[in-house]
Amino acid sequence: MLIPRSTTRFGAERLRPSVGFWILALVASIGTACFPLAEIETPAATSSVSAPYGAATLFSDRANIESESVPHERAAAADEPLETGQEPHQGDHGITHQMMVLVLQLAFIVIAARIGGELFERYLKQPAVLGELCAGMVIGPYALGPYLTVIGGDPLFPLLVGQSLPVSAALYGVATIASIVLLFLVGLETDFPQFVRYAGPGAAVGIGGVLGSFITGDLCYVLYAGVSFMDPAALFMGAVSTATSVGITARVLSEKKKLDAPEGTTILAGAVIDDVLGILILAVVGGIAEAHGAAQGEVDWTHISWIAVKAFGFWIVATAIGIALSKRVVASITWFKAPQAATTLSFGLALLLAGIAETFGLAMIIGAYIMGLSLSKEPISHYLERSLTPVSACLVPVFFAVMGMLVNFEAMGGALLFGIVYSVVAVFSKVLGSGIPCFLVGFNALGASRIGLGMLPRGEVALIVAGVGLSAGYIGDDMFGVVIMMTLITTLMAPPGLVALFAHEGEGLAQPKDLRVEEAPKGKREKLIYIDGLTWANHDLLIQSLRQAFEDKGFFFRTVRKEAGIYQMSGSYEGERVVVAMRDTKTRLEFKTDAACHELVKAMVETAHVDAQHRISRLRVVEVDLDEVRPAP
């Protein structure tokens, strides 16, 4: 046996759940009890639909704001909009009718998003995420939604007013779960050593992008309205400009297999820093705005400092604990015999960490990403990716379609010229603010452009922050429309721009050899193994047999780039985690791995060769008389 008996199919030792694991679970439960989610009232500042991204936790003390503070004029659509909390055609139907409406909403969203994504990919040569966003805009409550009806004549996507988001809490909850799935998978796909290596550049990118966007966004409103830099409206317009939505960029990077590239890991690291700093800026702006509105008010810096300590503390501690205990966590979840148990338990932990992150003032998606990142360095990560891919294919388009539904076309017309100027400033400030620091950390102009565009989308985070300012009365309905315009422009610009820049085969690093090549550990020199003599007639069959041989030994077989013939096998060999890279050139197979794994690869190839020969020997030609099997007229 090449794999020790104590090793499971996931490449981890089969152990009973450790005491440390259960202690960690207990601490997590206590943390949830000590920092419960704020009770959210119906006003927009603290609407329950805002909770998944941290805004509700920061402003839960504003639950007494009257819902009349939200202007209702923009909601005058085709049909009369529904008031906050009102569900269409409730009557005697109750929860059953609401669930029926939700199911029909999801059906329309999934189908429309799939069609939109396919049209954009096939005919416009653009990422599917753009089609999904546009599909949501078309069927959303600000467009065709009120005209699409369900049983009983109720609108399928009614326009809900009196809250920061125009969709129901149930539908937004499904979108939130979809975003957690997306970021959990992004964390699993992240190359952990590469992430650690580019954490420094990521911090520089995140800080530069936040500072540049906040200052220019604030100054832009100052010049437009003639107010001071510390005016609450100006501060909120600056804070809105800082919020990066990593979900859209992560989707494009994942589709293009660039998550492990230096630019991809830097963007992800920078997005985490960006989110933490964005929460802190939102807290500071909220404190200053509250003091500005109160007579002789003073900023509560103690409260703001506590928010900062909680956010940074959770981020650092959760990441450190997750990385330190990842092997124990894997051993615990693989203790269950059912193959699907590992997937369900790991996703359950991602949901748990996402919820705890919200209680500490961070976005839920950051908690999910930390969980995925912690497991990314374990062999089980490839199995989890493969298991969650079908779930992601169904749920993630829902997330982007719902984001498209938030676009209010009518609100954009209130300050159209300023909206265009503000959007242009937001684009350049983010691209330059995140891109310029890249030159100081080893990237060239191409790499800096990729990273700057990757940090560009504002997405749902900006809308939620703007909703907080709108409901609290710090910004008006026209400025909310400006934020929507900026969000739409930055969201639609980033995906095609990233695709075009990554289509350019140039290197993004200024000195690729010095930065990308690491010395192999002592006694672990890499070795290339070649298998010649392959033809079009047998190489596919041999690859299938190789995959079966590696999987039988507990390895995970991953297709990295099928069109380029690049594959990866990872698992445990002689008590250590090993990775074997394979490239199919159509005339030979090339294996790259540690020199110590030479015998492993040789044994796998011999096993696969025997299996392929056995399959060929079983082939036979069968002659069939079509007249005998053709049905009689």
TrEMBL record:
Q: Which Pfam families match?
A: Na_H_Exchanger
Keywords, A to Z? Antiport, Ion transport, Membrane, Sodium, Sodium transport, Transmembrane, Transmembrane helix, Transport
- Region Disordered, as annotated, extends over 70-90
Q: Does the keyword Transmembrane apply?
A: yes
Q: Which InterPro entries match?
A: Cation/H_exchanger_TM, Na+/solute_symporter_sf
PROSITE patterns xref list: PROKAR_LIPOPROTEIN
Q: Know the name of this protein?
A: Cation:proton antiporter
Upper lineage ranks?
Answer: Bacteria, Pseudomonadati, Acidobacteriota, Holophagae, Acanthopleuribacterales
